[in-house]
Automatic annotation (TrEMBL):
One of its GO terms (biological process) is regulation of DNA-templated transcription. This is Sigma-54-dependent Fis family transcriptional regulator. It comes from the Bacteria. Residues 5-122 form the Response regulatory domain. CDD domains: AAA, REC. The modification 4-aspartylphosphate is found at D54. The lineage of its organism: Bacteria, Pseudomonadati, Pseudomonadota, Gammaproteobacteria, Alteromonadales. Gene3D superfamilies: 1.10.8.60, 3.40.50.2300, Homeodomain-like, P-loop containing nucleotide triphosphate hydrolases. Residues 146-375 form the Sigma-54 factor interaction domain. GO terms for molecular function: ATP binding; sequence-specific DNA binding. It comes from Litorilituus sediminis.
Length: 450
């Protein structure tokens, strides 16, 4: 990388001149800066590939504090920095290396040593960038596709894009398998915190007595079983995102402990009196009806208010008919690759059956159904038989045999309750006339709005 740009940061004009000559003759581009303000501005604007930073500015020739302060300001730029220190100030050099500098050179410098160090650092910086690009490629390759074409998903998509980059707490609601966990991942990936970790905590899976230790960590000896220090989830997720899955199953007795850290942003590691500050973005998910739990006094209202700054409700798959075929196709590709088969196509009647199914297990159920179908299919077409999903025939089998009159009464009661007692609505669902329904309501003594 010989056409690299190097920032020479030194307050001594003679030194800048000498370095400029040396580096230009080696084919490098140079820019110069003479004080801390100039250094940060030039580094930010010109984005040099490397910085040579003098540590002994005239205002403060001995301690090098000013140099260390500049180093700290430059750190977020991720540019390799080689320190130039006065001969004998090895202490300062070490401190600088600890703060992220990549190498140091003693003044007066040995030309060859200096040039070698520059070359080496530029090489490894390029390599690092390549690795970073590679890692990103890997992560996008591994990230699961997010399909959302259905009308019921469009408003959600718009909201997700809007709120993901903010730090707003998000509560994701939806039936089992509707994509709550995947959406949490997606929000994290679209956020400013994407380079920091996303830490998931399944609230239903933590034993009550380990709850605090799990979330806040503990010090060795904090309680009988605490044999080692333990880092809590809040700390693991520092600067990143914390995902509380199945938040609805958090026992009432533990809710105040969570509430406190959400209200104050502060917590203590068990066994330590030092207060820690939480820096996490919170996403939670549940398939429970939290408002209902609040009414039943099983979930604290104040905790709910902390979690539900933004609420996203994922629709069940049966309300995302347009997404069924694309989702099924993406699962066919996935499982065909997994089982090393050529991807078969869904037959027209198979697609029809997929669209008629009720999908109580939503997208997860669809994924299982397709996995099985891929395994069962050896031709180039997936037939309805390979789907093995409950057809209407099985639904008929599920009906309990009972006197016709009892079944009739139950059906009418159900229709009336779904329609909030509106006779004309219920009559439509049952496909009988309003008068026919009135007669039966009187007969079975079912109340209705008149
Ligand atoms: N929009 C989507 N596009 C593609 N695949 C999806 C989508 N949403 C969910 N999936 C897939 O469906 C499956 C279930 O999703 P996920 O685990 O996120 O659901 P969930 O709502 O968290 O379920 P649970 O309630 O059981 O926790 C996963 O395999 C996931 O990758
Ligand atoms: Mg989940």
């Amino acid at each position: 990388m010989s056409n690299a740009t190097i920032l020479i940061a030194d307050d001594d004009e003679d030194i800048r001149l000498a370095l400029n000559l040396l580096l230009s003759s080696e084919g490098y581009q140079t820019v110069e800066a003479s004080n801390s303000k100039e250094i940060t501005i030039t580094a930010n604007n010109q984005k040099p590939d490397l910085i040579l930073l003098d540590m002994n500015f005239s205002r403060d020739t001995t301690s090098g504090q000013e140099g260390l302060a500049i180093l700290e300001q430059l750190a977020p730029l991720n540019i390799p920095i080689i320190l130039m220190t006065a001969w004998g100030s090895i202490e300062l050099a070490v401190q600088g290396l600890r703060q992220g500098a990549v190498d140091f050179i003693e003044k007066p410098w040995n030309k060859l040593k200096l040039l070698n160090s520059i070359k080496q650092q530029l090489n490894s910086a390029t390599l690092n960038q390549q690795n970073q690009g590679y890692r990103q490629l890997l992560s996008t390759e591994h990230s699961k596709p997010w399909l959302a074409q259905a009308k019921s998903m469009q408003a959600i998509e718009a909201i997700v894009e809007q709120i993901a980059p903010t730090d707003a707490n998000v509560l994701i609601l939806g039936e089992n398998g509707t994509g709550k966990s995947l959406l949490a991942e997606r929000i994290h990936q679209l956020s400013q915190r994407k380079h920091a970790p996303l830490i998931s905590v399944n609230m239903a899976a933590i034993p009550d007595n380990l709850f605090e230790s799990e979330l806040f960590g503990h010090q060795k000896g904090a309680f009988t079983d605490a044999k080692q220090n333990r880092v809590g989830r809040f700390q693991l997720a520092d600067k990143g995102t914390l995902f509380f899955d199945e938040i609805g199953s958090l026992p009432l007795s533990l809710q105040p402990k969570l509430l406190r850290v959400l209200e104050t942003g502060q917590y203590e590691v068990l066994g330590s009196s030092q207060t820690q500050t939480a820096n996490v973005r919170l996403i939670s998910a549940t398939n429970a009806d939290l408002n209902n739990l609040v009414q039943e006094q099983a979930f604290r209202q104040d905790l709910l208010y902390r979690l539900n700054t933004m609420v996203i409700t994922l629709p069940p798959l049966r309300e995302r008919l347009e997404d069924i075929e694309p989702l099924a196709n993406s699962f066919i590709d996935k499982f065909s690759a997994k089982y090393q088969k050529t991807a078969a196509k869904l037959s027209e009647s198979a697609i029809k059956q997929l669209k008629q199914h009720q999908w109580p297990g939503n997208i997860r159920e669809l994924s299982h159904v397709i996995e099985r179908a891929v395994l069962l299919t050896s031709s180039d077409e997936i037939s309805p038989q390979a789907l093995l999903i409950e057809s209407n025939q099985n639904q008929v089998n599920a009906v309990t045999l009972q006197p016709l009159e009892v079944a009739e009464q139950q059906l009418i009661e159900k229709a009336m309750s779904v329609c909030n007692g509106q006779v004309s609505e219920a009559a439509k669902i049952l496909e009988i006339s309003r008068n026919a329904l009135y007669r039966r309501l009187e007969k079975f003594n079912i109340s209705y709005e008149s």
